[in-house]
Amino acid sequence: MQRTWPIFVAAFGATYTFSIGNVTAPRLGPELGASRGEVALVLAAFAVSFAAGLILAGRLGDRYGRRQLLAIGLLALALTSALAAAAPGLWWLVAARILQGAASAIVMPQTLAIIQTSAGGPAQARGIAAFTASSGVGTVAGQILGGLVMGLSLPFAGWRGAVLTSAIPSVVALLGARRLHAHPPNGTERPDLGGALRVGIPLLALVAGLSLGSATSWTWWTLTLVALGLLGLYGFWLNQVRRELAGRPVLVAPSVLRLPALRLGLAMALLLFAAYGAFTYEYSMLTQVGLGLTPVQSGLTLTAFAGTFVLTGLRMPHIVARFGNRTMELAAGLLIAGSLVLGVASWFTQGKGAATWIACFEVIAVFLGAAQASQYGPLVGTVMAAVPDRVAGLAGGLFTTAQQASLGLGIATIGGIFGALAPSQGWEHAFAFALGIQVVTTALFWILARRLRTRPRGFDAHIAPGTRHNTEMVD
């Protein structure tokens, strides 16, 4: 664990970079002349680029060496963070965020793969728990530290200074990367570079259409982007099936998804992170625009949530030992209850001032932080255990692809509904409605978690051998 500290700093930096976008979002509109949809696109562009490159980066790490790919990604993330901070206009910022997402995509699957292959048993469980906590800290630290930087009275502060801070964790992790064990490259096939473009371009078109749709009253071109995105993703899947049947390299091996635990885990990740991505975006808009808090105040209000999330993540091995495979179900139930209470509180505190809403949120946030950490932690272990160690990079890429794609889609869809309702219904009422959608997604998560726990004995066993054979054949 002592030698792997750069892994956890790198995981922190990748999620911190995404979170910085949320806290700066309310300032982008006035300073860059961006509409709500364009601001959402800035945030989603990072997540989409992140998602599109993850699986390819995981396969590249498996083939060329994970420490080498990690160092390249960290250097790229530091440089692209500087580009984003210096962006002269909205579309330059969108382009820079796409590059930031691509750099983060190189980093993240290497971190999970190194943890998976460096230790086993209790040590691996502790490593995954530390990774979960680091990723969670990065997400909430972006809100808190970004707000603090934006509140400084310095010549180069504001949203640009906050964005520039995302280069710091990358530089620190890069300095320590040489301490990591160098895993030998694995595999000889040329990775499916074309597959990355086939999934990345349609995904970007889909999220762009969803982000801009509500702000433009769903004009024909936003609907066209959504349709082209969906058709492109379907075409990508058919292409991957054909390539695997022909024994050619693929980006996503369809045979790997025959593992029931992996399929359910990825579906659960989609539900969990779509709601979470929307929640963090809505929180920033509500507190800074609706309630009139400064970025510093908005960030500090998340302290209780952040602290509970981190502490719960660090205690995850003990929590799982206590509650076993029911942990995620219990966590989902707690999150449903907390979301309902916060929704009711938000509804009835509209027009009563920021202090009343903050007081309610601070109490409920403790339960929300514990619940979300208890969903996320066991889920990572489930997905990483579903495939052999030799394709750990692919497994990390699959999970973090689902995570990042759903963060972007959550902002574009649930966040879009929130943004459309806020002007007419009020910020607190719109937030309560969005929390109602999160209750639905969490209920679906609970159903899948129960199905994962109660699946028939041996159900994975008769599929897993064939899956491993097919994976080895195309890797």
Can you characterise this structure?
With 475 residues, the protein is mainly α. It has one domain (5-474): Growth Hormone, Chain: A. 81% of the residues lie in helices and 0% in strands. The chain is built from 18 helices and no strands. Helix 1 (5-32) runs antiparallel to helix 2, helix 2 (36-64) packs antiparallel against helix 3 and helix 5 (121-150) packs antiparallel against helix 12. The two termini are 29 Å apart. 59% of the residues are buried.
Give the key terms.
475 residues; Growth Hormone, Chain: A; 18 helices; transmembrane; MFS_dom; MFS transporter; transmembrane helix; membrane
Short overview:
With 475 residues, the protein is mainly α. It is built from 18 helices and no strands. Pfam families: MFS_1 (PF07690).
Shape, per Cα inertia axes: globular
CATH architecture type: Up-down Bundle
Radius of gyration: 21 Å
Report the mean per-residue pLDDT as an integer.
81
Biggest pleated sheet: none
